[in-house]
Write a structure and sequence with these properties.
The protein is mainly α and about 290 residues long. The protein is built from eleven helices and no strands. The N and C termini lie far apart (about 55 Å).
Amino acid sequence: MNFKYYFEYCCPLVASIFIIALAAYSDPWILRHSSGSEEQAYLSISNQFAVVVLIFTTSVLNIIWKEVAFHYSRNDYDRVRKYFKLALDKLFLIGLIISGSIIFQSESILIVLFGSDYSAAYLTFALMLLYPIDQARGQVTGMMFLAMERTKTALLVSSFSSVIGVFFTIVLVSRVPNFGMGLGSSGVALKMLIVQFFTVNFSIYLLSRSLKFSYDYLYQFRAIAVVMFLSYIIDNFLATIWTWEGYLLVEIILNVGLTFLIITGFILFRPKWFSFEEQEISALRHYVRKFRF
């Protein structure tokens, strides 16, 4: 290890941080000048909930990063592929369960936490609750680029996504005649989802090609469809039997709690639908048996 190695490794990261920082500053600036401070407040509130998944994923990724870097340096690509797929699918599933349990209670949560004045932010809030689903996978791919010492590739991907992101923000948020759509904070949230989805999947393509394994891209659509359908059915069913009034907080807790338990139970009941392998299914069944009374 010498100075040249560290310079070549870190230089793209410094450039990437600078570009991402400029792009991150452009979103609130465009939003504030196009839609005002109220829409900016909606986005700020919604964004706070989108980082909840980071509390779990950051600690897990630090461990996986170490393992991937260790095995990659020893050309043990089977282990690298194993850890990559494990982190990719399971952290994605965690974000999906959390988002799916909460998303249909968006307006109620805003009313309880911030008052009825912020209920108009429910669409932005709902869209931002979808953000952690791919946010975890984005962290995984970023970690893989660093662990595999592909910082130049990480720079190119982040730079391209940042530039495209600014373009989408201008189109979706600005009120330029015959060009901007003026969607306000919802436009920023929608832009974040679109750019993140394509960036993450493109990163997965590059990494899977480098590691020589095929990734099931349909899994993400299948898992999202099943979880969101279950969440929608549960929310509507509970709405038909809920007769209490004036207990909105209790309703939210029961709704979110039951939705979380039912979705988790369904995943345990049909693990193959959610990319669990036979060894992982056996381990799940072993742990479930421990909790039987």
